[in-house]
Amino acid sequence: MARCWSYLRGLSICVTVLLLVSGVVMIGVGFSSIEDNVPVAELFDQLAISDGLLALQVFGPIAVVLSVLGISAAVSNYKPLLLLFSALIFVEFVALMIVASPLIHVEAQVNIAVDDIFLNVTPLHRAERYIQTELQKLQTSDSCCGLRSFEDWENHLPDSCSCTPPTDLSSQTSNSSSLGSCVKAENDLHPSDHVWVHSEPCGPILKRYLGFPIKLRIGIISAFATITITAIALCLALGLEEHWRKPPVETTVDDFNRVKYQPKPSLS
Asked: Does pLDDT of 48 surpass 60?
């Protein structure tokens, strides 16, 4: 039984160290600038893509401090300190869940808001020069065209939308309007000619860029919550060890063959 409690104590130390690491990760992500990597970021200034940052910035340092307390308590096996750590980390867990729960609905709200932005900014050839420039960079790097489709540019298709059909497919048919990832479109510069452009729109790609920070925060908070619950259970078990242990007893038989049970005398 003593070996079992020793294993439990070692496991508690490992989990509280993991809790410390998760707190450091929360601080790192909370103070990082992931949103700066979103293409055409100025389009989405009014969106709540930074939701959850404050939760990470506040609860991350608290988690680190409490983790150090928990590690000290588990190493020293000091029962009152283990119970204090369990109570404090439980309070942080409840507070974090209350603050971070709206994040679950943010991603769906962002997708709806992004669709409205796409409607307002088209046709793209009339959009601000900055938006056109940034979008053309995205079209070149990710082989896409337009926000919802290449028709967002109407007939003013930029060179970044150009697509080269696969040679093996282009040789099979010349009348098809789509080949591989390319689709045939009209160009205002040469009305009599058709050009091949990327069939994939850039809108879903932009949504993935926007959704990644939110998903990352939800994942970190979920992992932290799992580790926290485990740490609470282990530290509570250690803190209440005296209540879980069965007191050692010894049996004696008296002159009348009656068995008596009494606690073993302490060696200390």
From this structure: no
